[in-house]
Structures are given as C-alpha cells and as structure tokens.
Amino acid sequence: MMLSGRLVVPGLMALAAAWLATGLAGAQVIIPKTPLKVLYMTHCAGFVHSSVKVSKEILPDLGRRTKSFEVDVTEDCSLINAENLKNYQALIFYTSGDLPVSDEGKQAMMDWIKAGHGFVGIHSATDTWYNWAEYGEMLGGYFDGHPWTQEVRINLEDPKHWACHLIPNPWVVNDEIYQQRNWSRDKVHVLMSLDNSSIDVNRSKQEVKDFPMAWCKMHGKGRVFYTGLGHRDELWRDWQFQRHLANGIRWVLGLVPGDATPSAQLAGERRGGG
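Structure (tokenized):
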C-alpha cells in the first residue's frame, strides 16, 4: 500500500482523542496527511440489524477522531465496481444476504483487495454471500448461528495487535455472540476468542467449541479484519468497541502495527521453538 504523503510517527503518540492514545513502546503509527477514503456498505439483503443506523453515525465520527480515514456511507451496491473502487483504500461491510452486485463487480472487488487494499467485516458480514465461496475464503468464515445473547468474557489472543490495543483482557461484553463455520486457525490470525467458562457451551451444536470473536488475515496483498461484535446499539456507543473497530480499520489501511500470521502456524512455531 502506498505510503507516500503520510507522516510516520514512531513510539508513543498523543492523538487528539485521549482514548486513542498509543501505549506500545517502539510501535510505529502512521498519520496520513489527508484522511484515507473508505467505503462503508450497509446494504442488508437478509436480516437488518437496528444498529446499522447507529453505525452510520459512529463510523464517520471515528474516522474524524482518529484523523486517519474518511467514510462514505452507502447502500448502493452498484458502487462496487472497478472504476469507483479506485477512489478508496478500504471497504467496510455491515451487510447480510445475497448482495445485488454484478459478477463483474464481484471480480473487481476481489482483484482490488488482492492488489493491496483493505477489507473490514462487521458482525453479519459473515452472514453475507453464502453462494459466493471466494467471498467466504477472503473474509475467513461464515455465520453459523448465535447461541448466546448475553454478557460474556472475551480473551485477547494477541494483545499486541492494534485491534486489541488497550482493550481489557478479559473483555466483558454484552452482545449477540456468533459462532462461525468454514473458518480455521490455519487460515486466520485469531485476535479475540470467547471464554467458554462464561457461556453454556452446550447451546452450541458445533463439535469443536472454539469461538473466534475477531480475526485478521491477508488476502493476496490485501489486509482483512473481521469482528463478530456489533449487534447491539449500546455496544456501538461503547468506547472500547469503538477503539477495537477504529484500530481494525486503521490496521487494514496499513496505519498501525499488527501480525496476520495464521494462529496455527504461530502455535507450531512456539512448539518447535521457532
């Protein structure tokens, strides 16, 4: 991703909003001279979350507060085309169902991501495009039900990643909790996972009781970040969720640090002493 025209600031930083202050010594954060353009797609062809309305107000505000990105909000799926995507550095989905995008638009989107642009999926982004396998492969998994809507504990698996930055560990959250299918630690870098001691695991019919709450990965040269949180309006107004999401967006834009090595590979390296 092009870094020309951006200011690189190493070490600790003081940003305008106190909740965005950095805290990892030696980390490198990039502040763009001009906020990077992001397209926020909120078209819901399936279930419509009430929090989508709230998110349309909060996401642009997060961009302004971080001085990192500028958000164009839309439900117009025709904007996903090769020509229009040239105007953006990242695409954010809070969507559901089979979005009405042409085959040409789908291919343009995938080529655009692979070329080095960012993609962010929020909550029901995994409840989108079940009939397009490449989308699920790019994002990292698909929705497989929500057995719990309650207060839970979430463990940070990579506290050094910026999307987990300054989030308490464990993080106590009250939200609708997704379980996913077609995902694998061999393919994604799990950032946060459900603390199974905080739920009734028997409510899940999955054989393996491993429930990622957020992950990141690479798709070609593009960065992909997904958070399963964001169902409740109240969570969107929570500063910790806002920090988690804003820094996930900044990560896909290449502005903040964070590893994307698949979790299984990292576990193998630790076992092997690598």
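Residues 1-25 have pLDDT under 50 and may be disordered. The first strand starts at residue 6 and ends at 10.
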